[in-house]
Amino acid sequence: MAVEYSLEFSILEAGDDLSGFSCRNAVFTRYLTERAGQDLRRRAASVVLMRRSGEAAVIGYYTISAFGIALADLNPTMQKRLPRYPVVPSVLIGRLAVDERYEGKGLGRILLVDALERAARLDVAVWGVVVDAIDEAAARFYQKFGFIGVASDPNRLVLPLQTYLKARESR
Amino acid sequence: MVTINAPKPEARQERIEARLTAEQKEIIARAAALEGMSTSSFVVQRAVASATETLERHELLRLSASDSRRIADALLDPPEPTPDLVAAIARYRTATSR
Fold this sequence. Notes:
The structure holds two protein chains of two kinds.
Chain A: E1 7-11, H1 26-42, E2 46-52, E3 58-70, H2 76-81, E4 87-93, E5 96-98, H3 107-121, E6 128-132, H4 136-144, E7 148-149, E8 156-160, H5 161-169
Parallel strand pairs in A: 4-6
Antiparallel strand pairs in A: 1-2, 2-3, 3-4, 3-5, 6-8, 7-8
Chain B: H1 22-34, H2 39-57, E1 60-62, H3 65-76, H4 83-96
Helix pairs in contact in B: 1-2
């Protein structure tokens, strides 16, 4: 289960070779090999690639984009305590996938931590991290790390960024 | 006397073509008839509504009142990290030598 090699992360750039990436879920493979470049040009989302240090092959990726959590009907006291109401500044991790040849090594959680770390380092204030879970197994994966499910959108879960910052301090 | 002309509705000049089965077309035609609309207007109205919703979903998570309270509570008083999150951060640091 332990990762016995070092990993590197970089934002997708024009010219990156993505053709070798293959994920058990074909939607995630096709996104990276066919559509990620478009999103990059349209600046719709940043795509972050994971590689073994010094190697060209991409073994995992996630997307991250500016996002908002729209709250409704909160009492005025709570409204005032929030940085912005009704839309709380957040980021969306829309896709997160590991190459099928690298499954079962705990690389998904390493991708997730890199995404949280990136959100924490943004110069704009981010309060929430939202993830899209493709199925129940994915939702359970995110729940293990503290993500909270919402009935309003069963495929999405939310983690307060502060919870990640607390985790980062506790060694 | 000053008269103000109401803005003209934007002319519908664009076309879109789509292939569908006879059965699909029949379902749409029946639904459009029930709403008192032409098939064409019905298809356009519904497609635009659905597209708008899809676009919004890429930018926003809209919460109900009860979800809003739960999530606002969590944002203002962040839950303690789970052991799995703390362990994942340690693994991340090892793997990225941070």
